[in-house]
Specification:
By secondary structure, the chain is of the alpha+beta class. The chain is built from eight helices and 16 strands. It has helices at about 5-10, 20-35, 85-95, 160-175, 215-235, 255-270, 290, 320-339, and strands at about 40-45, 50, 60-65, 70-75, 80, 110-120, 130, 135, 135-145, 150, 185-190, 200, 205-210, 240-250, 280, 295-305. It has a four-stranded mixed β-sheet. Strands 11-13-9-14 form a four-stranded antiparallel β-sheet, covered by helices on one side. The model has no long low-confidence stretch (mean pLDDT about 95).
Length: about 350
């Protein structure tokens, strides 16, 4: 038995938010150095780590990638970090097999890169794995809506930013793209407060989550959402500045990389454990790799772990015994690529 559970239990107890994983990255880097790997810390002045194993023999260069950040939650009114997406499991699996990361030249000579994610129970159970997970593109838009303040007894002297924000939410809700496309848009945050209850608020902020299974429709969706927000609030005399807070591209997976993963899953779990590719409306920052480095053959697979009640749920749980399966699948992938 490998040390995957030992690594997991330690990392699970020190959840840290993205780019704040100081304890997490230090632990992973220390373990890799103890194993004799060449480790570069603070990639691109972040908490990222690259570990290298050089055989000294010319040949293909393979990268294994794991995310290590925890998610932010508000639980019982208290803001906290918690591992509710399985990234502690990802780091444990790749750390146990070996590790690598984009900016700062880390992928310049890499020819193939593999990543993976724990899958929810309804997609994949322990003893099963999917060779490809086709993630959607995701964009997060925030509108800052400006009105004009007024006493609540004289609302006609102001422009109610709350009313304008509600109008914007309703306008976005009636957007249409082609029915043949797989997409969604919904408001996920609404902030508005005049500070007192008898004043018309002059500012509101609303955040929308946009999803598209393909990258091209996302551009159309962003344009339509922005227009719907700005035109709807203008009808009430308000204005809106729309900003993109973050974006992730849709999956671009290479057939050759998927073939390697498929063979590895079959070797470890047998033909009965190999599932078809899975399509998900979730997003994954792994796919910046093939976008920023088109020469890299990217493969991304999903591991069955009996994960419930769902990813990002504050009480997310999964079968830890599945992590050893993940280690073995990665080892098989490495052997197939590097011999």
């Amino acid at each position: 038995m490998s040390k995957v559970l030992e690594h997991y239990h330690y990392l699970h107890e020190i959840p840290e938010l993205g780019f704040q994983e100081f304890k997490t990255s230090a632990y992973i880097a220390d373990q890799l150095e103890k194993a004799g790997l060449k480790v570069t810390r603070n990639i691109n002045q972040t908490t990222g780590i690259v570990a290298e194993i050089d055989s000294g023999v010319p040949g293909p260069v393979l990268a294994l990638r794991a995310d290590m950040d925890a998610l932010g939650h508000i639980i019982d009114g208290v803001a906290c970090a918690r591992h509710t997406c399985g990234h502690d499991g990802h780091s444990s699996v790749v750390l146990t097999a070996a590790l690598a990361m984009v900016e700062g030249g880390a992928l310049d000579d890499v020819e193939m890169i593999f990543g993976f994610h724990l899958r929810p129970l309804e997609e994949c159970v322990v003893g099963q794995a999917t060779p490809a997970v086709l993630y959607s593109a995701c964009s997060t838009l925030e509108a800052t809506i400006k009105g004009a303040p007024a006493h609540a007894a004289r609302p006609h002297l102001g422009v109610n930013a709350l009313d304008a924000a509600v109008q914007a939410v309703n306008a976005v809700n009636v957007i249409h793209l082609s029915p043949g496309l797989n997409w969604s848009v919904k408001a996920t945050r609404f902030l508005c407060d005049a500070g007192v209850t008898n004043s018309v608020p002059d500012e509101a902020r609303v955040v929308w989550d946009l999803r598209s299974q393909e990258n091209a429709p996302m551009e159309e969706l962003k344009e339509k959402v922005t227009q719907a927000i700005q035109h709807s609030v203008a009808a009430l005399g308000a204005t809106a500045q729309v900003a993109v807070l973050k974006e992730m591209p849709a999956a671009e997976i290479h057939d050759e990389a998927t073939a390697v993963i498929r063979a590895a899953i079959t070797e470890v779990l047998g033909a009965e454990g190999l599932l078809e590719a899975k399509t998900t409306p979730g997003s994954e920052d792994f796919f910046f790799y093939p976008v920023k480095r088109p020469h890299v053959k990217a493969g991304f697979w999903g591991l069955g772990t009996n994960l419930t009640p769902g990813l990002h749920h504050p009480d997310m749980r999964f079968d830890l015994n599945a992590l050893e399966i993940g280690v073995n699948i990665f080892k098989s992938c490495v052997k197939r690529v590097l011999g």
